[in-house]
Amino acid sequence: MTNQVGKRLATIIGHLRGVQKMAQEGRYCIDVIKQIEAVEAALAKTKEVVLAGHLDNCVREAIRGKDEMTLRKVMKELLAVFKAENR
Which positions ≥6 away from 63 have C-beta within 8 Å? Predict the structure, then answer.
């Protein structure tokens, strides 16, 4: 995992703790919901960064390689990620 992803996740964790505190304090529900949406957006962006890295490294290697089994495995994994996105 890249340092960039680690930093993003640390930021998200901090933000999520803030949301937890808001909920514990009984803050206005809409404000809590907006913060949850911000966390969701940050997670989605982090997921994009991880996927881009995977495409740039693992998938590129699998396509260039000569091992058909590895290529099929990588393609199957990618399909599973996209199927999960569309649920």
Answer: 71
Q: Looking at this protein, which amino acid is placed at residue 32?
A: V
Residue ranges of domains in the chain, CATH in brackets: 3-85 (1.20.58.1000)
- Helix H or strand E segment including 61: helix 60-64
- Taking only the tens place, the pLDDT of each residue in 18-46 is 999 999 999 999 999 999 999 999 999 99
Measured N-to-C along each axis, helices 3-24 and 29-54 cross at an angle, to the nearest 10 degrees, of 170
Dump the DSSP string for 5-58.
HHHHHHHHHHHHHHHHHHHHTT--HHHHHHHHHHHHHHHHHHHHHHHHHHIIII
How far, in Å, CA of 73 to CA of 1, rounded? 20
